[in-house]
Design brief:
alpha+beta, seven-stranded mixed sheet, 23 strands, binds glycyl-adenosine-5'-phosphate
């Protein structure tokens, strides 16, 4: 994990939040490569959920909602709490369930005695309006889910879907986690990619199964090794307050198997509760029986930051003794980030073989051409070609284009360049005019 954290900071993926002021626990900022990488993850989620499936709609609801929403959802009551123990000496706080798992009975920081576990609510409070009193209290959303439910009626009346149908949303969520940690695994501000699939109660088991398989396959299709993923059903006493059944997709992190996504059968909890609390009837009429019922909800709830961390960990590879054949002097360990090409922040890097004017001019033209057609593209003319390849390997760039003296023959349309593949290190000559098609076919098709 230390190596991943260091690479993320050194190469502009992820930085500690407010770092110049000493940081803030559980908060991270994404740098230029991290933003691009996470955007690619979110786009792949959109592609899988919203474009490849039919009858699923996207919303972008507000982070701030009526306080009543959180009362209806059960988040202000015991359901959304973690057990907390405080050290009587240094007053540091710990998750009681985590301490129990590791058999720890005294303060891990100073050895002091611990209080009895108390329930601690995870919602982050804020106040809206000029007066900071109980009436102005509300919360930063603890999950994106509720923004979907409050718009259920709006989607029905504007888009006229029939069951089964889904509503998806990507957005920030906030939780006052007692023990944030493991880098971006447990944060206090994070991003979720959630989908709520509304079904007739008779179909709930079928769709629970369907989405479990679909979501597991999404991670595998994007390059995570199958053996590093597993589905883990929740035991009855572990189920969230809203869930009838739940299975976690877990990834084998360096710190153990942990949840990256939850698939839940939420039953009729949400629509019945929101109907009751808001006074708006969100039930449906069964066409066969003529009776009213609340649709059941199958939820797929993924974290964009946890997925990003899993993709990074899985892609990280160290090659002892180096792999770059062009620099014979380099014998130390080299890092290759074997990210799926669709997820890699830069798709391609343009590297002129030397800093000589005609090469640089042509290389800049190739770089501009690829950017104009939409490829995230890096340009680098510093240091030896071997070192530049290594830099690109370390950030997962699938292709490097070298512009050399041969490329100057009949430029720009007739010239060709060397294209190096990150994974095979194979090199081939490709006409500049065909680069865009080559990249499109090899990255997206
Ligand atoms: N709507 C259901 C829900 O929010 P959850 O299991 O609490 O369920 C779903 O969260 C996903 O959100 C998790 O699998 C994880 O990927 C992500 N997530 C939850 N808490 C997180 C945190 N503190 N930091 C980063 N990601 C988190």
């Amino acid at each position: 994990m230390e190596k991943i954290v260091s690479l993320c900071k050194r190469r502009g993926f992820i930085f500690p939040g407010s770092e110049i002021y000493g940081g803030i626990a559980g908060i991270y900022d994404y740098g230029p490569l991290g933003v691009e990488f996470k955007r690619n993850i979110k786009e792949s989620w959109r592609e899988a959920i919203l474009r490849k499936e039919s009858n699923i709609f996207e919303v972008d609801a507000s982070i701030l909602m009526q306080r009543k929403v959180w009362e209806a959802s059960g988040h202000t009551s015991a359901g959304f709490t973690d057990p907390l123990q405080e050290c009587k000496k240094c007053h540091h706080r710990f998750r009681a369930d985590h301490l129990a798992e590791e058999g720890i009975t005294i303060c891990p920081d100073c050895g002091g005695g611990l209080t009895e576990p108390q329930r601690f609510n995870l919602l982050v409070e804020t106040h809206l309006g000029p007066v900071k009193d109980d009436a102005s209290l509300t919360y930063l959303r603890g999950e994106t889910t509720q923004g979907i439910y409050v718009n259920y009626g709006n989607i029905k009346s504007s888009m006229h879907p029939r069951l089964p149908f889904g509503i998806g949303q990507i957005g920030k969520a906030f939780r006052n986690e007692i023990t944030p940690g493991h880098f971006t695994y447990r944060m206090r501000e994070f991003e979720q990619m959630e989908q709520q699939y509304f079904v007739h109660p008779d179909d709930a088991d079928t769709y629970f199964d369907y989405w479990k398989k679909k979501r597991l396959a999404w991670y595998v299709d994007l390059g995570i090794k199958k053996e590093h993923l597993r589905l883990r059903p929740h035991a009855k006493d572990e189920l969230a307050h809203y869930a009838r059944a739940a299975e976690d997709i877990e990834y084998q992190f360096p710190f153990g198997w942990h949840e990256i996504e939850g698939i839940h059968n939420r039953g009729d909890w949400d629509l019945s509760r929101h109907s009751k609390f808001s006074g708006e009837d969100l039930s449906e009429i069964d066409e066969k029986t003529g009776k009213r019922f609340y649709p059941y909800i199958i939820e797929t709830s993924a974290g964009a930051d946890r997925a990003a961390l899993a993709f990074l960990v899985d892609a990280y590879e160290e090659v002892a003794g180096g792999r770059t054949t062009t620099t014979k002097s380099v014998k130390e360990m080299e890092v290759v980030l074997r990210l799926h090409k669709k997820l890699a922040p830069y798709k391609v890097a343009v590297l002129p073989l030397s800093k000589k004017e005609p090469l640089v001019k042509l290389a800049r033209e190739v770089y501009g051409q690829l950017r104009r057609v939409g490829f995230m593209c890096d340009y680098d003319e510093t240091q030896s070609i071997g070192k530049r390849y290594r830099r690109q390997d370390e950030i997962g760039t699938p292709y490097c284009i070298t512009v050399d003296f041969e490329s100057l023959e009949n430029p720009p349309a007739g010239g060709d360049v060397t294209v190096r593949d990150r994974d095979t290190m194979g090199q081939e000559r490709i006409a500049i005019a065909k680069l865009s098609d080559f990249l499109k076919e090899n990255i997206y098709d």
